[in-house]
Structure prediction request, 818 residues.
Amino acid sequence: MLIKQSLLAAGSLGLALVGYASVTIASDTAENYPTKPLQFLVAAGAGGGTDNFARTVKPMLEEVLDTRVTVVNLPSASGAIAHQRTANSEPDGHTLDFASSTLVTSLAAGQNPTGLDELTPVARMQSDVMTLIVDPEKYPDFESFRKHAEENPGEVIIGGTHAASPDRMAFLSFRDASGLDINFIPYDEEGSVSANVMGGNIDGMFGEISSTLSYMESGEMMPILVFAEERLENFPDIPTTVEHGWDLTDGNERGIFVNADTPEAILAKIEASMKEVYDSDAYQEYEERVNLHYREGWLGSEDYRQQLEKNLENYKRLLEEN
Amino acid sequence: MLDSFLNGLAVVFQPMNFLLLTSAVFIGFIGGALPGISGVILVVILLPVTYGMDPTAAFMLLTAIYGSTVFSGLITAILYRAPGTPEAVMTAFDGYPMTQQGQAGKALGIGVLSSAIGGLVGTIALIIFTPVLASFALKFSSPEYFALAVLGLTVVASLGGRLIYGLIGACLGLFIATIGFDPLTGTSRYTFGSLELAEGVGLIPVIVGLFAISEVMKRALGEETHQPLKKVSINIFDMHILRKIGVTLSRSSLLGVVIGILPGIGASTAAMVSYSEAVRWSKTPEQFGKGAPEGIAAPEAANNAAAMGALVPLFALGIPGSGTTAIILGAFIMHGLQPGPMFMVTSSDLVYAVFAGLFIVNFMILLFSKPFIALFTRLLNIPYSALGPIIVMCCIIGTYSVRNSMFDVWLMLGFGVLGYLLEKLKFPLVSIILGLVLGPIAESELRRTLAMSRGDFMIFFERPISATLIVISLLLLTAAIVVPLRKRAKLKAANK
Prediction:
C-alpha cells in the first residue's frame, strides 16, 4: 500500500516535473526561436503568385529573425503534399507552409487530407479581390451580362482553373446567390481561360483584379462585378456583390501555416515577426507593385482561423449542392 | 518596327548586356545538356538574381537562357540517349542510332544547324508577326486543340515497326496520362489514395527512365555494340546533308512556330508533331528510328522555333505559351511590369531589346556550340563503367529537382526497367511518349468542347480550323490503312 502510494507520489511528481520541464523548454524555445534555419514549403509551383509571395517574404523574415531560410516548392496535388509535410514536421515552428485559398477549397473538395485540425494558421498576408471578368464588347456592364444569362438559361459558360480552385468556388457561390443558370468549364491554367474569354469562345471568368489590369487598359477584358463590401477606390464604376444583396466577399487569399502542435509562444513569435514584415515599407512596396494593395491583407492567427472555418463550411455546402 | 529593332540591337551590344547575354548562353548550354535540369529550373534559380538588375537586362538574361537550354538538350540526347530537356526527347530516336554507327559528329552537326535555323525562323516570326500571330492563337479553342492532338496521334499508323506494337504503346501512353486528378472534375483516377500520384505521372520521370536509364542498363549488361569513337568532328554546314533535309527543315520550323504560339502547348509537343509529319511525308519512313538525318532535323528545328513562338502570346497578350514562359510571366510581375495587350506599346524598348537579344542568341549558338560540344564528346572516351553511373546520378538529381519528390525518382527508375524490357521486345518507345504527351490534350479538350456545345459533336465541323484538321486526320488514317492492304492484295495477285 505504502509502496503503491509512494510510487503514485513519485509518479505524479515525475509528471509534474516533466510538465514543468516542457513548459520551460517551450518558453525557452520561444525565446531562442529560431534555433536552426527555417524551411518554407510553398504549396504551389515556382513563379506563381504564392511562390513570389514566399520568396519576397524570405529575405525580410531572415532579417527580422536573424536566421537563414530555404524555400522548397511542392506543387504536387494542388499543394496537398506541402500541407501534409508541414503537419508531419517537428512542431517547433521551423517549417512554414505558404498557401493560398486553394488549401481550403481543395480541403472542401476532398483532394487535400490535411485539415485545419492538423495545421494552425499563423496569419493571412494577402487578400486579392475576386471579380467577374468579361469581354466588354460582348457585355459592356454587369446588367447586360445578367440580362443575357436570364434570357438564355444554361447557355452562358464561365471558364476557370480547376474543379477545386478558388475561382470555381467564386463561380458556385455567385450562381448560388444570383440564381442564374450558368455553366463552368475548368481549364489547365489561367492563361488558357483568358485566351478563351478574349477569343470569344466562352462568356467570362472569375479572377483576381490584380491580374486583369493590363487588359482593362486595352479594353480586351473588363471586370464587371467586384466581390467586395464597398466599391474599390480605384474602380468606382464597378458594382459590388454586396450592393446586389449577395453576401460574397471572399477572394483569393495567401497566408502562412504551421503544424497544429506548435507551442503557443512560438506561434505568437512567428505571428509577430510576420506582422513586422507585413508593416515594413519594403513589403508594402511589393504589394503595391503587384497590385495587391486594394484590400487589407493582414489577418492574425485567430481571426484567420475563424474565417477559414467559415469559408470551408460554405464551400462544402456549395459542392454538396452542386 | 525596324527602328525599334535596331535600337534593341544597340542595347544588346552595350558591353555589360553583351557579356550578360554570352554568359546566359553558356549557363543555358550547361543546364540544357544535363538530363533533368530543364529551362524551367534554371530560370527559377536565376530569378532572384535578376531582381537587382534593370528589367531589360533581366529579361534578356532569362529569355536567352530559355532559348539556349532548348538547344543544348540535344547534345546528351544524341551522345548518350539521355535527353537533356523534355524538348529533346524526339531527337534521341534518330540521333543516338547515328552515334552507335559512329556518326556522332554528323548527327550533332545536323542538330546544331537545325536548331539555329528553327530558332531564327521563330525569332523572325516573333519580331515581325507578334500581333498578327497572337490574334491567330485566340482562334484556337478546345475543338481545335482536340483536332490537333488527333492529327498527332494518327501518326502511330505510319510509324515503322509492327502496327500492333505501336497501338499498344500509344494506349499505354494514353493510360499513363489518365493517372491523377481528373482534369475537369477533380476525381482521383488510379491514384490508390497516394497524394504523390494525384498530380499525375510527370513527363520527365517517364522520359528519363524509358530512355536514359534503360540505355545505361543495356550497356552495363553488355548488350550494346558501340562503334569506338576516337575523335568526333562536327560539321555544321554540310551542303550535301542540307540539301537532303531542306524540306524537312522548312516544314518543321513553320510547324514549330504555329504550335509554339498556341497557349498551353509547348516545344515538346511541337517536336513530336513535326517528327510525326517528317515520318509521314518521307519517302523512306522505314529509316526513321535507325538514324535518319530528317529524324534529327525535324524535332530540333521545331522545338527551337516553338520556344520562340511560345513568347508570342506572352508579349502580345500576357498569356504564357509554355511552362518556362509561365515563369517568365511571373518574373515580369515581380519586376512591376504587366505583360498584356498594351505591353508591346508601353514597354516597347524592353520588348525589342529582348527580341534583338534572342536574335543574337541564335548566332551565338552556331558559334559557341562546337567548342562546347567538343567537351562532351571527349567524355565518350571515358570508360562506360565510370560514365554510366555518372549518367544515372545526373538522372536522379534532375528528376528529383523537378518537383522535389523522391517518389518521382523511384518512378523514373521503374520506367527505366520497363523501357529495358520493352526494347527487348523491339517495342517502339516513341508511341508511348506520343500517347503520354497528346493524351491529356485530346481527353480534356474533347470534354471541354462537348461542354461548350452541350454534347453536340457537330461543333468540330462547324468551326473551320477544327473541321480541316479532323478531315485531314481522317484522310491520313484511311490512307495509312488502305495503302498497305492494297499493296498486300497486289502482291498476292502477283504471286498467283
